[in-house]
Automatic annotation (TrEMBL):
<feature type="domain" description="ATP-dependent RNA helicase SUV3 C-terminal">
    <location>
        <begin position="94"/>
        <end position="140"/>
    </location>
</feature>
<keyword id="KW-0067">ATP-binding</keyword>
<keyword id="KW-0547">Nucleotide-binding</keyword>
<keyword id="KW-0347">Helicase</keyword>
<keyword id="KW-0378">Hydrolase</keyword>
<dbReference type="GO" id="GO:0003724">
    <property type="term" value="F:RNA helicase activity"/>
</dbReference>
<dbReference type="InterPro" id="IPR022192">
    <property type="entry name" value="SUV3_C"/>
</dbReference>
<protein>
    <submittedName>
        <fullName>RNA helicase</fullName>
        <ecNumber>3.6.4.13</ecNumber>
    </submittedName>
</protein>
<dbReference type="GO" id="GO:0016787">
    <property type="term" value="F:hydrolase activity"/>
</dbReference>
<dbReference type="Pfam" id="PF12513">
    <property type="entry name" value="SUV3_C"/>
</dbReference>
Length: 170
């Protein structure tokens, strides 16, 4: 699918009044979609979804999320992860909570495009709001609201480890 999208971008001529936009942002998602049994139309639509690509946990959750659609099954939030009930007590736990928030945003986006698969739109919205509250409490508790460099170190460490994790198709 990645090759098809690249060819489409190269050969697409929309004239002078329209522009295709930057398709580069969806290429990481395309790699996630390559091996799934989805129509080209579904892959194309999902290539624009705000799926998490640069984090170990987020990539696995999003791969799992997309596989539900490929298998024509309903996807529920509880199938993907469970939100903690208490605010995070470490920078790593805070980053994980932020990834859950990004995954919830992706779920909500997908629920508008594929409502037969992503059926818990209201549950996802409530979980997103709970997640935002926990993140805010965690920032205050960890005193990171004024020192984001600690979180940047956690992000960098997790991105380096991403290359070591096998993809869902392996």
């Amino acid at each position: 699918f990645t090759e098809i999208l690249s060819l489409f971008e190269i050969t697409c001529d929309l004239g002078q009044d329209l522009c295709l936009g930057d398709m580069g942002t969806g290429r990481g998602t395309c790699v996630l979609l390559n091996d799934l049994q989805l129509s080209i139309a579904d892959k194309y639509m999902m290539s624009f979804a705000p799926l998490v690509e640069r984090d170990i946990i987020g990539e696995k959750i999003c791969a799992n999320m997309v596989s539900y659609h490929a298998e024509d099954k309903e996807c529920r939030i509880s199938d993907l992860f469970t939100l903690p009930t208490a605010p995070p007590t470490s920078p790593d736990a805070l980053v994980t909570l932020e990834i859950y928030h990004k995954c919830l945003m992706a779920y909500l986006w997908l629920s508008y495009k594929f409502p037969a698969t992503y059926v818990e739109q209201q549950v996802a919205q409530e979980a997103k709001e709970k997640c935002e509250d926990l993140i805010e409490q965690g920032l205050i508790h960890l005193k990171l609201d004024s020192n984001p460099s600690v979180l940047n170190q956690v992000y960098k460490k997790r991105r380096k480890n991403l290359a070591k994790i096998p993809t869902p198709s392996e």
